[in-house]
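Blinded run. Sample ID left blank on purpose so nobody reads anything into the name before looking at the predicted structure. Input follows.
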Amino acid sequence: MNLSHRCFLASKPGENLSDCEDSIFPEPESNESDAIHSFAVSDGTTTSFFSGLWSKILTAHFASDPKAAFDTEWSQWLKLAQQAWQIEVRTIASSTGVSMFTRNGVRERRPAAATFAALLFEDPDKDNTIPWKAVVLGDSCLFLLRHDGHRSMQLTRSDQFSNWVSAAESYATPLPHLPAFHFSRPRGDEENLKEGDVAILATDALSRWLLLRAELERPVWGTLLALKSQSEFEKFVSDARSQKTAPLEPDDVALVVFQTGPAHEYIEKAVFESNSGDSEGAGATQPATTGNPAANSHIPDSATASIAPLPPNEPAT
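Blinded prediction complete.
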């Protein structure tokens, strides 16, 4: 089985990639190697404290020992990442010329918050299928594209995204937001990946847009598979943001695409035709016919998303 992957990041319009509060493992453009079997994306919530640093520490922590994220209790797994973040921000706060905002934030133990989604693949089984496991927290999503269609985890509709998200915090809390874990057989009930299947990890802006495109019957899976370079990805993001109907919101974007050989035909055929006018080609399906209110207007900007409070005994949404 010919395995391949592609990883990309894009910042908000007008910002540099170094300003991006999303993070990814492996690094962008470390592509086309079948030696990498673990992947992660994270999105630092803009209103929290040093959230971009926190998202980078989370993905680096996962990369250092991917299996530990699935074999260790969640709060315990977070502990080393939290310690690394706390050391880093204390070092920043003690440096010369740092702002009072930063020093006060460290003194007051202001937390960072970030969503997180990660995948780990095992070596192919004797039947040439690939066992996998995933962890998903917040509105970063995992998409599985199989022969019989696509599904997403944890959010499944574009109207489920909001400015309140479940997230991992950089200080331990009595009631942390807990992620969802997914396992293929024998540990879980999910099917192994087969040749032609595709797995995608994406942070919130792109995840929401991918779901909306599918709801509009204009999916773009094939375009994602065709991306080969950072410049191609940046052009795709720019074109998607420029759409007059249902544009991609102007937030940071992280994307991982994992492919198991040539994709199923319906995936390859689902391509994005950029058009900043009222429609994308003659006879394009119009949003008003979908029954989804989110499809009839611009998607609200979630760049100012906040961490959601978690009342006792109430699951995160």
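Unblinding after everyone has recorded impressions. Confidence is low (pLDDT under 50) at residues 278-317.
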